[in-house]
């Protein structure tokens, strides 16, 4: 394999390293963004770890590609310098062997460059006419690009507006699913089951006005549950969904003991609107119970 073939192959290798490093960098950016905005703490931590590994890998590939490009450039300069050196020595030896012909060659060749030099300026004006023609398409291209940019920007506010209107038009959206502390591991057989939904709680802790259909405008809904094989300090959370979309949620560390019965509630000062509601209960990242009810408009 010749030096020219090696240099050509090395160029493709460097370009491939740059492309691979760029792809890894894009994936690392996506994973790091998911690590900050994921719904659960464990998923965010895993995404951050993957993003960090991909980011370091992309930086390493960038460094390797730059180093190969740098050293291949130095090698090319060194190779050309040695080649020019040997060619220069060969030309000098030929001149020594034919000393008598050098005066005649100098005399006959000197008119030739003067003739080419005088002809070159006559061709230059024809070359300078080309930039005047290239100015017209450049102006047209810039005008077209500005028109394309304005059309691209105008649709972007539309999805952001619809995304922000959906939660605010229904209930106050409060999703805080990050546990308040590290917590302790849960048992494999730990369970929480939602048993009823009601409008109030009796003095003995039992549900009052329980049911699965309620009237719109209520400000608080109580959910009753039973639990077993729980340990204090286990991370758990409950999330309220309306028409399949999460609207309220909170994560806690368990403090109710190993087994028993209890209740919690969701509240909205403006009153809950009509819709199909569902409550989901999680231990860590695992769903362990859910219950659904309906809120209807006033007749």
Main sheet, how many strands, which sense, barrel? 6 strands, mixed
Structural class category: alpha+beta
Work out the helicity level.
40-55%
CATH class of the largest domain: Mainly Beta
Distance between the termini: 88 Å
The third-level CATH topology of the largest domain is Immunoglobulin-like
What's the helix count?
5
Mean pLDDT: 75
Computed CA radius of gyration, to the nearest angstrom: 38 Å
Q: Shape from CA axes?
A: elongated
- Second-tier CATH architecture of the largest domain: Sandwich
**Proportion of strand residues:** 25-35%
Instruction: Tell me how many strands there are.
Output: 10
Instruction: Give the low-pLDDT segments.
Output: 89-105, 109-118, 120-173
How many domains? The number is 2
């Amino acid at each position: 394999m010749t030096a020219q073939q090696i240099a050509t192959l090395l160029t493709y290798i460097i370009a491939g390293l740059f492309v691979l490093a760029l792809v890894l960098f894009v994936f690392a950016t996506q994973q790091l963004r998911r690590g900050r905005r994921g719904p659960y703490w464990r998923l965010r931590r895993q995404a951050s770890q993957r993003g960090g590994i991909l980011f370091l890998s992309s930086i390493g590939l960038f460094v390797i590609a730059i180093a190969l490009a740098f050293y291949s450039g130095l090698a090319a300069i060194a190779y050309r310098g040695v080649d020019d050196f040997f060619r220069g020595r060969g030309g000098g030896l030929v001149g020594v062997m034919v000393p008598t012909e050098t005066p005649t060659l100098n005399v006959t060749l000197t008119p030739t460059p003067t003739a080419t030099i005088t002809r070159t300026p006559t061709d230059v004006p024809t070359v300078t006419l080309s930039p005047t023609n290239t100015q017209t398409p450049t102006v047209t291209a810039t005008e077209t690009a500005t028109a394309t940019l304005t059309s691209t920007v105008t649709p972007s506010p539309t999805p952001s507006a619809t995304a922000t209107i959906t939660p605010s038009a229904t209930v106050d959206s409060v999703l805080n699913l990050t546990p308040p502390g590290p917590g302790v591991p849960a048992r494999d057989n730990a369970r929480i089951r939602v048993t009823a939904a009601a409008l109030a709680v009796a003095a003995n802790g039992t549900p009052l006005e329980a049911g699965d259909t309620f009237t719109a405008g209520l400000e608080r809904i109580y959910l009753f549950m039973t639990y077993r094989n729980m340990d204090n300090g286990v991370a758990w959370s409950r999330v309220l969904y309306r028409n399949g979309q999460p609207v309220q949620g909170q994560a806690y560390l368990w403090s109710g003991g190993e087994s028993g019965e209890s209740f919690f509630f969701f509240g909205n000062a403006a009153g809950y609107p009509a819709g199909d509601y569902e409550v989901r209960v999680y231990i860590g990242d695992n769903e362990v119970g859910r219950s659904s009810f309906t809120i209807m408009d006033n007749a």
